[in-house]
Amino acid sequence: MASKTDFIIVPGAWHGPEAFDPTSALLEKAGYTIHGVSLPCFGASPPLKNFDPDVQVIRDTVNKVLSSGKDAVLIYHSYGSVPGSEALSEYVKKLESGNQKEGWGKIRRLVFCCAFVLPEEGSLMAALQFNDLPWFIVNGDEVLPNTPEKIFYNDLSDEVAAPYIAAIKPHSYRTFSSQQSVAPWKVIPSTYIVCEKDQAIPLPVQEGMLAMAHQLAPTSFDVIERCSASHSPFISQPEWLAKMLIKAAGGAA
């Protein structure tokens, strides 16, 4: 029997949803439908001026799933949580007012996979205290990662990492300054996947964001899962991550 819950995958900067294929294949094998979002910021030419196009394509995907009567679990990776959160602004308003659309599904849970947790009016650059990270290579309105083998894939062999490095495309730098108007993790059940070997969003930063979230909304992030992975557990630990995502969807882990 097909699951009533679909997974919507929102990748981070420099990546397409294909990076999640090792995990997506396991979820599909378990009977789930996967919707990988291809963000307009991925290799955009010219680069985007803000995250609005990313927000719109995520919102369209969410509405398509929910309007079919199915529930959804959203998986945010890294930057993906920023436009991914903003895409839920209307959903959060309806949730808080109790005015959800009849016949539509619901968002069962958000899963932040070593992703940014921002408050209202927060931006990724504000979270970085308006300083570029040392591994940013900024060229005009584009940014690329230096040494991605260390930043994103430090628990993969060179051979396994090579095709993922080759698939990286420039990211639209100005999207990092776009501000969220909503913090959906305050009102939608949320899971955080802590990746202890992450070099892109190091462990103390992940734990600091969770501490901030719990201070602002004590019941937020009621589930915290930890693994020894780098920034890309969907590649290096797909079996473990698939179990955590099935658990998030209400299935047996």
TrEMBL record:
Classification via InterPro entries: AB_hydrolase_1, AB_hydrolase_fold, Sec-Metab_Biosynth_Hydrolase
Alphabetic keyword roster: Aminopeptidase, Hydrolase, Protease
Residue ranges of every copy of the AB hydrolase-1 domain listed in the record: 8-243
GO molecular function annotations of the record: aminopeptidase activity
Domain of life: Eukaryota
PANTHER family found in the cross-reference section: AB HYDROLASE-1 DOMAIN-CONTAINING PROTEIN-RELATED, ESTERASE_LIPASE_THIOESTERASE DOMAIN-CONTAINING PROTEIN
Protein name: Prolyl aminopeptidase-like protein
Annotated organism of origin: Hyaloscypha variabilis (strain UAMH 11265 / GT02V1 / F)
